[in-house]
Amino acid sequence: MTTNTKHSLVWRVIGGFVVVVPMLVWLQSIGDLNVYFGFAVPTGQLQYILAKLFGLYAVTAIWLQVLWVLTGSNRSSRWFMRPSAQHHKWLGMFAAALCVLHGVCFAWAVSVRTDHLALHLFVPNFAKGYYQFALALGVIAFWSIGAVIYSGIKRRTSKQAIWRWLHKVALVVFSLGFVHGFMIGTESRQGVMYYFYLSLALSLGLAVLVKLSELLHGQFSKHKVVSPVRGIPVREAQK
């Protein structure tokens, strides 16, 4: 199997996962969609389920973005196509847009249900129990993704290392968004949605381990000086 064929197969599978699976998970979690267009549904419920849909797609888009970065090395490129700068930029913007839609729909639902503009939801508050703690993690992730995008723009125009390191906060953003989504919904800890979150966590965990292995291998290679005569490490050549 050629490298291009491997890339095509792997990214077709991942592309299908990103497009199809969040929708299937959402449909399974909400039940009959027609019910939400009836008169018996509580006010704001349609906005709630839309917020859930955008949230599932947001966490999946961020997952793919982080996966791209972690598997973008020369050693990993045997299996994973290295994304271009344009791919990276547009996927990041798309993920940010999904996060905004998620937050706006949720605040809209709360506003409609309480008859008050729920702008307080965009300020993290850890002082009111389990649900509020989970919500606060999502708020931090919501604002952090803006910092990630801004640092991505700045690192192309500035040589300061701080922007490059700040841009790596994307992994933290995903972690916060992941924990937020897992904690805030009771259905996320059972059934299809549980396995959805588990697959994201395991795949990124594996990618992190591969990346760490490559970094350690690179450090080892730097310290391994080869004898120009025998083609073996100098320490062994001097014995």
Task: Kindly describe this structure.
This protein has one domain: Four Helix Bundle (Hemerythrin (Met), subunit A) (Up-down Bundle), CATH 1.20.120. α2 runs antiparallel to α6 and α4 runs antiparallel to α5. The protein is globular, with a radius of gyration of 22 Å. Helix content is 72%, strand content 0%. It is mainly alpha-helical. It contains 8 helices and no strands. It is found in: Membrane. Its main location: membrane. It is a multi-pass membrane protein.
Number of domains: 1
Q: Considering DSSP H and I runs of 4 or more, what fraction of the residues is helical? A: over 70%
Structural class: mainly alpha
Helical segment count: 8
- The fraction of residues in strands falls at under 5%
H-E order: HHHHHHHH
- Using the alpha-carbon principal axes, give the shape: globular
Main sheet record:
none
Mean pLDDT level: 79
Number of strands: 0
InterPro entries: Fe3_Rdtase_TM_dom (IPR013130)
Domain Ferric oxidoreductase: 61-177
Subcellular location: Membrane
Membrane topology: Multi-pass membrane protein
Give structural attributes.
mainly alpha; Four Helix Bundle (Hemerythrin (Met), subunit A); 72% helix; globular; disordered C terminus; transmembrane helix
Question: Would you summarize the structure shown here?
Answer:
By secondary structure, this protein is mainly alpha-helical. The protein contains eight helices and no strands.
